[in-house]
Amino acid sequence: MEKTLPVMIYLDHAATSWPKPEEVSRESLRVLTGLTANAGRSGYEASVASARMVSQVRQRLAELLGVGHPENLVFVRGCTEGLNLVLKGFLKPGQHVAVSPLEHNALWRPLSRLQRQLPLHVQTLPADPLGRIDLEAARRVAAARRFDLVAVAHASNVNGVVQDLAGLRQVFADTPLLVDAAQTAGVLPISIESAKIDFLTCSVHKGLLGPTGLGVCYLAPQHDVAPLIEGSTGSFSDSLEQPAFRPDRYEAGTLNLHGIAGTYGALLGVKQRGLLGSETRRLTRRLVEGLQAMGGVSVYSPADGTALCTSFNVDGLLPDEVATRLEQKNAVSCRPGLQCAPAAHRHLQTFPLGTVRFSPGWGTTEEMVDVALRGVAEIAHSVV
To answer: Are 189 and 338 part of one and the same domain?
Structure first.
């Protein structure tokens, strides 16, 4: 008996995880329908309980990300806000910044604005055709110029390439390092302090399987970073100045308690699920190898089992057209186009049309991957 396709084969985990674990909605609903007091704004029990929940989630995230002092881990709206906080609060006029060639617009857009306004000097680090930083060539770059910040996406949201943070840290031993961990938090092991990472930001709605609208940003205590937003914190209310201590200095306004509660639920399951990287890489390798075996398909991700997602194109068809056919005929949901990373596509020579991206994650099965591969094979065969 032929198996029926699921309602949707979701291969867009690089954008956001879906479905969420049951405990995410359970904890969010618990706070939405019960615990609703503003954290840190009063001494009655509901407010204290809210503050206690915020502290617990901060502590659990600190443990997961290798942060010894949780107050250096501040809540933000997402990875994008965290990058804006560091770039706008840390950089000074005339400074030099090095970036990888695979950066997302979450970094490039604020950096480009600062490049014009301050101004800044921005240099893209040398890399191989897939965007992996060439550490030996980067060493020569580092020897020729002093940089004030190195900014790198731990893993590309376009082709899944994972950068060698340990190698990069060795090359730029004395340069502050900013890591965009949007694609790797909850997926790959991260130990911020032992890896000597100065700044790291991530959302919770991808590999951490939490809700949208929340992220965290690590700020090493030795660096003075100006707040991005100032206002009420519930502390030192007699002063018109923003508190100088962490995390209050960076958490003005009412925190996203419902998102924090959902994140608490997601973190409850981490010990049972473990990190997602091993399975994600295995499924991505299956995708890459299957796509590379097809005629008329170009693949832009490494085949060595290290990638976390894969990008490809079918010769003679626009990425949007391929994605539409996959959804209509195979119930596969994926991401076509530039994936908000035009700089990465310029490096991969897929600009301005972009690619089709398959990004597996929690809940993806081999059967789903194989259905997607059969769909691409049928499309490629139809244009031969």
So the answer is: no
CA 233/CA 215 separation, integer angstroms: 18
What does each of the 384 residues of the chain score in pLDDT, given as a tens digit? 445 555 799 999 999 999 999 999 999 999 888 877 888 777 788 888 888 999 999 999 999 999 999 999 999 999 999 999 999 999 999 999 999 999 999 999 999 999 999 999 999 999 999 999 999 999 999 999 999 999 999 999 999 999 999 999 999 999 999 999 999 999 999 999 999 999 999 999 999 999 999 999 999 999 999 999 888 777 777 777 877 878 988 988 889 999 999 999 999 988 889 999 999 999 999 999 999 999 999 999 999 999 999 999 999 999 999 999 999 999 999 999 999 999 999 999 999 999 999 999 999 999 999 999 999 999 999 986
Please state the φ and ψ torsions of residue 38, each to the nearest 5 degrees.
-75, 125
**What is the distance between the alpha carbons of residues 1 and 295, in angstroms, rounded to a whole number?**
30
Whether 74 and 96 share a structural domain: yes
Q: 3-class DSSP state for residue 80?
A: helix
Do 284 and 259 share a structural domain? no
